[in-house]
Amino acid sequence: MKILNLRYDFDWSIPFREPFAGWLITGVKLTFLIAIVTTALSLIAGTILAIMRTSRFKFLNLPARMYVETVRNIPGLFWLLFFYFVFPQMLPFGLTETLNQYTYYSVVAGILGLTIDNSAYVSDIVRTGILSVPRGHIEAAVSTGLNRFQQIRYIILPMAFRTVLPPLGTRMIHNFKNSSLCMAIAAPELTWATQQVESITFRGLEVTLLATGFYIGLSLTLAVLMIRLERWLNIDVTSITQMRT
Amino acid sequence: MKKSCLVALLSVLFLMSLISYAAGESLLNEVTKRGTVRIGHGNATPPMNYIDDKGEWVGFDVDLGTVIAEKLGVKVERVLVDNKTRIAFLANRSIDISLANISHTRSRDEQMDYAEPPYFWTGKIFYSKKGKFKSIKDLGGKKIGVDQGSNAFIAAPQEIAKYTDKKPEMLSFQNSAEGFLALKQGKIDSYSQDAQILAAVAGSLGEEYEAVGGAIWSPGLYGIGVPPDDSKWRDKVSFVLQDILKDGSYEKIYQKWFGPKGISPLPINARPRLPKDTFGDMLYIWPD
Q1: Tally of domains in chain B
Q2: Which one of B187, B229, B230 would you mutate to disrupt binding with A, by most A Cβ within 10 Å of its Cβ?
Q3: Who has greater pLDDT, A241 or A107?
Q4: In angstroms, how far is CA B207 from the centroid of its own chain?
Q5: What is the mean predicted confidence (pLDDT) over A168-196?
Q6: Does the predicted TM-score (pTM) go above 0.95?
Q7: In this structure, is residue B283 part of a structural domain?
Q8: Residue of A131, B127, B139, B149 with fewest CB within 10 Å of its CB?
Q9: Are residue B43 and residue B174 in the same domain, yes or no?
Q10: What is d(CA B41, CA A146) in angstroms, rounded to the nearest whole number?
Q11: What is residue A183's DSSP assignment?
Q12: Selection from B274, B146, B12 nearest residue A186 by Cα
């Protein structure tokens, strides 16, 4: 019992007082923005990478494999700090100044960093899906005269995504929670806001509990939505395995 | 789904049930009995407290902490704190003393107590590229950086509002090194922090920068933090600090860090002292 002796009296008016309430609301909005944009971007980038990795051509699959291996072995926070502090300095012509002086560059850097990190994992998941598409289906597509692009677009990807929807959903929820890393680069998202309130008032537990509730609530909602989506698409794992044999 | 909601709710309730108030004996007895004093220092704020090139934990605060422990007659146990935990750790009594460049402010005083007098008298400046801004008025509408945990996040816009209607854009960084890097790269137009910290973080680059308007805009009176509601311990630490001021060991540390031949020479006189026009150069010490 001694370990968790908090000696703390709660003052629940803090999260609803200005300027704290304003910071928290901005934080929630920005967390949503970062989560939605990075989810979309990493889905696109991850899918392209997955297609490259399953390609027969070395000039396509080698760079993709190198990318995934590099990114997966570096912590996500590194990419955020890299894009915020280092990346603009590497650019030629007045781009360095333009980026540095852009007020919301921290948000841009956060989105870039999270996208880089997440797309590597997404590509791995989508790749598994592509590999699970039964050989016969692709052969059938070839014999009906579809070209390579049409095969991927109409046959392979729709089947692959149906198979990997559950792990993909989990990954996106993880990515949503990773948005809290953006606090390290002064992007005023929700976790930054809670830290900011704590640093000014020295009463952090109220806002931290609220933020925890927000993250739990939203993650659970996303999980429920994913389950609904799976049901709606009527994914039956047994039917897929039967098709394969 | 219902089950996981229930588990989450139960764990929160469990945490809250553990919250209790313990009114124990004075820390003075506890520290003497224990034989060690737990002092909280930061490690990212040169020259007050930081890790030097050799990987050692040094700084004005660290040296002062050593002398305080000596005078208390106990061993020192250093605990790492940051801008946020330096106050929270006092409140939950994980440390006995917080010596981590804490300016005395009213909102902080509600959560903790300070030994008397403040041990270092400095203040915040707006630091910018030389010649970029003439006065604080020019900072309206610009991007201003501060450290997260600094009271300047609220105080700086209020100060700038005295001169102009244009509101500045505030950013807060995790430590002074990142804040200065952002200033160097032009991510912020000005960085507000205490004068001696900026001088130390900027190092030899300091020549390219200056205090906007040339002056301190908010006083920073660094106090030794002690846990709230323990006047016996607070008095003891105050007496020890004043003894250190009286017997010259304070001056020795001051010269080592801020003297003309010190590690980070300081043009202002930051020693705790009484108003010069009335008292001359008397230090701020209570008479017996």
Answers
A1: 2
A2: B187
A3: A107
A4: 24
A5: 90
A6: no
A7: no
A8: A131
A9: no
A10: 68
A11: G
A12: B146
